[in-house]
Protein backbone atom coordinates (compact mmCIF):
# COMPACT_ATOMS: atom_id res chain seq x y z
CA UNK A 1 0.00 0.00 0.00
CA UNK A 2 1.20 3.46 -0.90
CA UNK A 3 0.17 6.83 0.46
CA UNK A 4 0.01 9.07 -2.60
CA UNK A 5 0.58 12.84 -2.73
CA UNK A 6 -2.58 14.94 -3.03
CA UNK A 7 -2.69 17.42 -5.89
CA UNK A 8 -2.92 21.03 -4.71
CA UNK A 9 -5.20 23.77 -5.99
CA UNK A 10 -3.88 25.24 -9.26
CA UNK A 11 -2.86 21.89 -10.78
CA UNK A 12 -4.51 21.52 -14.22
CA UNK A 13 -5.74 17.93 -13.52
CA UNK A 14 -8.26 19.38 -11.04
CA UNK A 15 -10.00 21.22 -13.90
CA UNK A 16 -10.23 18.29 -16.34
CA UNK A 17 -13.39 16.28 -16.93
CA UNK A 18 -12.35 12.75 -15.96
CA UNK A 19 -12.77 9.75 -18.29
CA UNK A 20 -14.65 6.49 -17.73
CA UNK A 21 -12.43 3.42 -17.37
CA UNK A 22 -12.81 -0.28 -18.19
CA UNK A 23 -12.23 -3.33 -15.98
CA UNK A 24 -8.86 -3.65 -17.76
CA UNK A 25 -7.56 -0.43 -16.15
CA UNK A 26 -4.05 -1.35 -14.91
CA UNK A 27 -3.72 -2.19 -11.18
CA UNK A 28 -7.18 -0.82 -10.34
CA UNK A 29 -7.47 -2.83 -7.10
CA UNK A 30 -4.14 -1.47 -5.86
CA UNK A 31 -5.08 2.07 -6.91
CA UNK A 32 -8.34 1.89 -4.92
CA UNK A 33 -6.49 0.48 -1.88
CA UNK A 34 -3.89 3.28 -2.17
CA UNK A 35 -6.69 5.85 -2.38
CA UNK A 36 -8.24 4.52 0.86
CA UNK A 37 -4.84 4.70 2.60
CA UNK A 38 -4.17 8.19 1.24
CA UNK A 39 -7.60 9.43 2.31
CA UNK A 40 -7.24 8.07 5.86
CA UNK A 41 -3.65 9.34 6.19
CA UNK A 42 -4.87 12.85 5.38
CA UNK A 43 -7.99 12.62 7.59
CA UNK A 44 -10.37 12.86 4.64
CA UNK A 45 -13.86 11.39 4.22
CA UNK A 46 -13.65 11.24 0.43
CA UNK A 47 -10.99 11.26 -2.27
CA UNK A 48 -11.33 11.48 -6.05
CA UNK A 49 -8.78 10.15 -8.56
CA UNK A 50 -8.05 13.65 -10.00
CA UNK A 51 -6.79 14.57 -6.51
CA UNK A 52 -4.03 11.98 -6.93
CA UNK A 53 -3.25 13.16 -10.48
CA UNK A 54 -5.36 10.62 -12.38
CA UNK A 55 -8.08 12.00 -14.63
CA UNK A 56 -10.38 8.98 -14.32
CA UNK A 57 -13.94 8.63 -12.98
CA UNK A 58 -13.12 7.04 -9.65
CA UNK A 59 -13.67 8.19 -6.08
CA UNK A 60 -13.88 6.67 -2.62
CA UNK A 61 -16.15 7.81 0.22
CA UNK A 62 -16.27 6.82 3.89
CA UNK A 63 -19.00 8.70 5.74
CA UNK A 64 -19.41 5.86 8.27
CA UNK A 65 -16.52 7.41 10.23
CA UNK A 66 -18.38 10.74 10.39
CA UNK A 67 -21.44 9.10 11.95
CA UNK A 68 -19.31 7.08 14.39
CA UNK A 69 -17.95 10.37 15.77
CA UNK A 70 -21.34 12.13 16.07
CA UNK A 71 -23.41 12.42 19.20
CA UNK A 72 -27.09 11.33 19.19
CA UNK A 73 -28.38 14.88 18.58
CA UNK A 74 -26.18 15.33 15.49
CA UNK A 75 -27.24 11.93 14.09
CA UNK A 76 -30.91 13.01 14.36
CA UNK A 77 -30.16 15.81 11.86
CA UNK A 78 -29.52 13.17 9.20
CA UNK A 79 -32.42 10.68 9.38
CA UNK A 80 -31.93 7.61 7.21
CA UNK A 81 -28.22 8.32 6.68
CA UNK A 82 -25.82 6.12 8.64
CA UNK A 83 -22.91 6.56 6.27
CA UNK A 84 -21.26 4.35 3.66
CA UNK A 85 -17.80 3.09 2.80
CA UNK A 86 -17.63 2.58 -0.92
CA UNK A 87 -15.64 3.01 -4.12
CA UNK A 88 -17.46 4.54 -7.09
CA UNK A 89 -16.23 3.84 -10.63
CA UNK A 90 -17.59 5.62 -13.75
CA UNK A 91 -20.16 7.51 -11.68
CA UNK A 92 -22.72 9.66 -13.48
CA UNK A 93 -25.54 11.61 -11.84
CA UNK A 94 -29.03 10.43 -12.78
CA UNK A 95 -30.92 12.91 -10.59
CA UNK A 96 -30.50 15.43 -7.78
CA UNK A 97 -33.46 16.14 -5.55
CA UNK A 98 -34.59 17.96 -2.43
CA UNK A 99 -34.12 21.38 -0.93
CA UNK A 100 -30.54 22.70 -1.14
CA UNK A 101 -28.98 23.02 2.33
CA UNK A 102 -25.76 24.57 3.55
CA UNK A 103 -22.91 22.72 5.25
CA UNK A 104 -19.32 23.73 5.94
CA UNK A 105 -17.04 21.98 3.45
CA UNK A 106 -13.31 21.70 2.99
CA UNK A 107 -11.09 19.89 0.48
CA UNK A 108 -7.76 18.10 0.78
CA UNK A 109 -6.62 19.84 -2.43
CA UNK A 110 -7.51 23.26 -0.96
CA UNK A 111 -6.25 22.97 2.63
CA UNK A 112 -7.12 25.44 5.38
CA UNK A 113 -10.11 26.90 3.50
CA UNK A 114 -13.67 26.02 4.52
CA UNK A 115 -16.94 27.49 3.30
CA UNK A 116 -20.67 26.85 3.67
CA UNK A 117 -21.82 25.22 0.43
CA UNK A 118 -25.44 24.57 -0.59
CA UNK A 119 -26.15 21.19 -2.15
CA UNK A 120 -29.37 19.20 -2.76
CA UNK A 121 -30.61 16.72 -0.12
CA UNK A 122 -30.25 13.65 -2.32
CA UNK A 123 -28.42 12.34 -5.37
CA UNK A 124 -29.08 9.30 -7.53
CA UNK A 125 -25.96 7.89 -9.18
CA UNK A 126 -25.32 5.28 -11.80
CA UNK A 127 -21.91 3.71 -11.26
CA UNK A 128 -20.04 0.41 -11.32
CA UNK A 129 -18.59 -1.24 -8.24
CA UNK A 130 -15.19 -2.92 -8.00
CA UNK A 131 -16.59 -6.01 -9.75
CA UNK A 132 -17.82 -3.71 -12.56
CA UNK A 133 -21.47 -4.46 -11.78
CA UNK A 134 -23.77 -1.60 -12.81
CA UNK A 135 -25.62 -0.04 -9.87
CA UNK A 136 -28.16 2.78 -9.63
CA UNK A 137 -28.46 4.05 -6.07
CA UNK A 138 -29.84 7.08 -4.22
CA UNK A 139 -27.97 8.71 -1.33
CA UNK A 140 -29.22 11.36 1.08
CA UNK A 141 -27.99 13.80 3.71
CA UNK A 142 -24.33 14.03 4.60
CA UNK A 143 -23.44 11.03 2.43
CA UNK A 144 -25.08 12.66 -0.61
CA UNK A 145 -23.11 15.85 0.11
CA UNK A 146 -19.74 14.06 0.27
CA UNK A 147 -20.59 12.14 -2.92
CA UNK A 148 -21.52 15.40 -4.71
CA UNK A 149 -18.27 17.02 -3.51
CA UNK A 150 -16.19 14.11 -4.87
CA UNK A 151 -18.31 13.91 -8.03
CA UNK A 152 -17.51 17.58 -8.72
CA UNK A 153 -13.83 16.57 -8.94
CA UNK A 154 -14.71 14.21 -11.82
CA UNK A 155 -16.31 17.16 -13.62
CA UNK A 156 -13.32 19.48 -13.10
CA UNK A 157 -15.15 21.48 -10.43
CA UNK A 158 -14.09 22.47 -6.91
CA UNK A 159 -16.21 23.34 -3.90
CA UNK A 160 -15.08 26.97 -4.11
CA UNK A 161 -16.86 27.18 -7.50
CA UNK A 162 -20.12 27.10 -5.51
CA UNK A 163 -19.39 30.29 -3.56
CA UNK A 164 -19.98 33.89 -4.56
CA UNK A 165 -17.43 35.68 -6.78
CA UNK A 166 -16.84 38.15 -3.94
CA UNK A 167 -15.92 35.41 -1.46
CA UNK A 168 -13.64 33.82 -4.09
CA UNK A 169 -11.97 37.18 -4.65
CA UNK A 170 -11.38 37.54 -0.90
CA UNK A 171 -9.60 34.17 -0.78
CA UNK A 172 -7.46 34.81 -3.86
CA UNK A 173 -4.30 35.32 -1.78
CA UNK A 174 -4.82 32.08 0.18
CA UNK A 175 -5.47 30.16 -3.06
CA UNK A 176 -2.30 31.60 -4.62
CA UNK A 177 -0.30 30.51 -1.56
CA UNK A 178 -1.69 26.96 -1.86
CA UNK A 179 -0.81 26.72 -5.56
CA UNK A 180 2.73 27.99 -4.81
CA UNK A 181 3.20 25.44 -2.02
CA UNK A 182 3.33 28.14 0.68
CA UNK A 183 1.23 26.08 3.07
CA UNK A 184 1.92 23.53 5.78
CA UNK A 185 -0.20 20.38 5.98
CA UNK A 186 0.42 17.05 7.67
CA UNK A 187 0.04 15.00 4.47
CA UNK A 188 1.98 14.73 1.20
CA UNK A 189 1.00 17.25 -1.47
CA UNK A 190 1.92 17.74 -5.12
CA UNK A 191 2.03 21.38 -6.15
CA UNK A 192 1.58 22.72 -9.71
CA UNK A 193 4.58 23.72 -11.76
Automatic annotation (TrEMBL):
GO molecular function: peptide deformylase activity
Pfam family for this entry, one: Pep_deformylase
Binding residues annotated for Fe cation, in chain numbering: 107, 149, 153
Enzyme Commission designation: 3.5.1.88
Coiled coil: none
Free-text comment on the cofactor: Binds 1 Fe(2+) ion.
Entries under InterPro entries matching the protein: Peptide_deformylase, Peptide_deformylase_sf
UniProt catalytic activity: N-terminal N-formyl-L-methionyl-[peptide] + H2O = N-terminal L-methionyl-[peptide] + formate
Cofactor dependency: Fe(2+)
Naturally occurring in which organism (per UniProt): Terrimonas rubra
Entry annotated with the keyword Iron: yes
Enzyme active site: 150
Gene3D superfamilies noted in UniProt: Peptide deformylase
Protein name: Peptide deformylase
Function (record text): Removes the formyl group from the N-terminal Met of newly synthesized proteins. Requires at least a dipeptide for an efficient rate of reaction. N-terminal L-methionine is a prerequisite for activity but the enzyme has broad specificity at other positions.
Amino acid sequence: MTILPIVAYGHPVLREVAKDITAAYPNLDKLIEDMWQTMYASNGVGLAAPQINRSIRLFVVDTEQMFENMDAAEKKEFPGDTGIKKAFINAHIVEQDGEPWAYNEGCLSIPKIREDIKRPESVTLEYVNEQFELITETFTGLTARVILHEYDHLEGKLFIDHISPLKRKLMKGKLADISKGKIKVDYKMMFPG
